[in-house]
Amino acid sequence: xxxxxxxxxxxxxxxxxxxxxxxxxxxxxxxxxxxxxxxxxxxxxxxxxxxxxxxxxxxxxxxxxxxxxxxxxxxxxxxxxxxxxxxxxxxxxxxxxxxxxxxxxxxxxxxxxxxxxxxxxxxxxxxxxxxxxxxxxxxxxxxxxxxxxxxxxxxxxxxxxxxxxxxxxxxxxxxxxxxxxxxxxxxxxxxxxxxxxxxxxxxxxxxxxxxxxxxxxxxxxxxxxxxxxxxxxxxxxxxxxxxxxxxxxxxxxxxxxxxxxxxxxxxxxxxxxxxxxxxxxxxxxxxxxxxxxxxxxxxxxxxxxxxxxxxxxxxxxxxxxxxxxxxxxxxxxxxxxxxxxxxxxxxxxxxxxxxxxxxxxxxxxxxxxxxxxxxxxxxxxxxxxxxxxxxxxxxxxxxxxxxxxxxx
Length: 408
Ligand code: UTP
What we know:
Distance between the termini: 52 Å
Strand content: 15-25%
Helix content: 25-40%
Number of helices: 14
Bound molecules: uridine 5'-triphosphate
Oligomer: single chain
Strand order of the largest sheet: 4-3-2-9-13-10-18
Mean pLDDT: 95
Shape: globular
Largest sheet: 7 strands, mixed
């Protein structure tokens, strides 16, 4: 793209300020900026104007959940089905590690954060240890696909190499990168991160399968015979990955997707709740939970939206191939975005200062016809690290690790 073409594109979207420092740049920097302008989808920025009406909700109703007693009753049967699938190489795991983890406030990828007290215990290490439990139980390696982003790819890959994959078999670990999206101020003007670079953020965790396809990872995975993918977040240090009983229950109930859920601590807890939306499985985000929904009860008097998702889903690969063509909704999320001030100096804000644009994995659920919400014991499987202190923090996760006999 040449200067004039870049100018025309930016003018169309009201983003001409991107060229403010153009004349100061070296030839190479000019080239870099023009390439970035060419590759950027500015259309998303116009969504800021329609923020309030962006994703209207359909009719929300309760969904049936497989609760702990029902799982316990069939535990052996489900576990056997799951182990058989794992041993046949049909189950892979996808670690979503492309996020910026801004709330934790570390510049490094979240997975390299050390939660140890008397020894090193990195977040990635905890996840690998959990996955290794199943590898040993099944006596079979489980392919692990790790999604990174432009912001943390190299650090993540070298960290795994340096730590010898925490004992995992490197032949079964594949990295791939997600796409980026522009990040803007509250009026929809893209921020500049440097004089030759617009601010960008990873485009959410909803594009993971598309990125697997782009990187050729999906094709290799299909050739290897993987039929199910357990997608999970980087920050829950207690989660069970490729959990045989969960895998078996999802297969046995012929569900298109399984979703691990936990009992919410309060009706207004900040987790998305499983539900039906216009008759299809869905997740109602905590900010969409009206007082009416919070008060609603099932026929047997239990809270109707009592089970929250923990970002641990088991997708059937053949359905992913179909739904990946559909455009998932975009969410506008308030974040702290590094930018250049009027004087052209870099600023790292302490508070959120603008929007990033994300597709979310939870929206993939709504594209499918059936979902098995599968309850897990909260204290045993849910220790998310979002913040440094307080709720869902390093502190609370350490406490939960201790309760589960994990030495830190
Ligand atoms: P979060 O919603 O906690 O987002 O991600 P985040 O960006 O990591 O953290 P904050 O909000 O800035 O503090 C949930 C999971 O989705 C992954 C994260 O790495 C985490 O495992 N994720 C999120 C991606 O892989 N890509 C993204 O673009 C966003």
